Amino acid sequence: MPHRDLSDRQSSRSEKGFLMTTTSSDGPTRSRLTDIAAAAGVSVATVSKVVNGRPDVSPATRAAVEAHIARHHYVSPSSRRTATEVSTVEFLLPDDLSAYSTLVLSGVVEAGRRAGVSVVVGGFLRGSTRTAPRAWARSLLTAGRGGVIAVTAELSDSEVAALHSARLPVVVIDPLGPPRHEVASVASTNFAGGWAVAEHLIRLRHREIAYVGGPPRSACNQARVHGYRAALEAAGLAPRPGFVLQDTFHVETGRRLGRQVLDRAEPPTAVVAANDEVALGLLEAARVLGLRVPRDLSITGFDDSGFATRTAPPLTTVRQPLREMGTLALRNLLQLATGEPLGSHHVELATELVVRGSTGPATDRHVAFS
Known about the structure:
The radius of gyration is 24 Å and the shape is elongated. The chain starts with 5 loop residues before the first helix and ends with a helix. It has helices at 6-14, 33-40, 44-51, 59-71, 99-115, 126-131, 133-142, 157-165, 190-203, 219-234, 251-262, 276-288, 322-337, 364-369; strands at 18-21, 29-32, 88-93, 118-123, 148-151, 170-173, 184-188, 209-212, 244-245, 270-273, 298-300, 317-319, 346-349, 352-354. Mean pLDDT is 84; it is low at 1-31 and 78-84. By secondary structure, the protein is of the alpha/beta class. It is 42% helix and 15% strand. Helix 5 (99-115) links the parallel strand 3 and strand 4.
């Protein structure tokens, strides 16, 4: 451990905060700020500066200390609160409300109503949280927030450390990255959903099946892609080169990539869309190209959002229990606020294939073509 001067040694006697960690199966173990300092290779005074949001710490040192704080779930003494103070939670979005996030939000709001907790919708504040996560966490506390529910987010180590330090529980719905032990998360069985919808098309004798949409770095999208590929592989099939196109979950992606994959000499006879919005764009692309759905082309979605029954034809899709996901996220958040451990830090709810009019059997021409 580096040499510490007199002021550091004085700080080590006066800074007596504790950190809580759940590394022992017998119950929480307690460790002092000196343990964080030793693990990070810095002085206790430096750890204290990071905990208190002082600016006179280098970015590299701050990041290293915050990573250890997040790993051990440190809670500063000045930030300790009781669960009875949780009356308002912050609902964070990656961008504007969509059909997907609106359904999730409705579940959060309904669970909050039953629990007597208000829900405030805020932006994700990516710029400010990346540069000053502790200031962001303190602003949430000042505004009376008792916890955070974030949708399709990937929290940095600094953001996790800031929320833990402020003792603000957080639950992520459909995290962008792989589930993390230190962050509770809720999702659905995306792999099973991708498999089910691709298998449905295979049963309809489709052999040339494309996948369109969804960010490549999104964990839920990748799970859907892997499910789609696994179903094809189980049937002895594989997507043609250029048949898996990924970008965003938005309608425009369906329009643009749909035209790209459908306007080929040998186009697919069916397309699995990453979500219902992408499917909506695909339906438009098919119309522009003069393709009839489902006679010339079958299209599927994912989510079973509100407009899935309003498209022409109605959309075959995978139903995610979006309201239930929001409800569970709020319940888990309140449970974390009481200090009770969760049964699992990552929970997946079951998906369900819903067959409507946008899918139909491959024609003899389709089968011969494959």
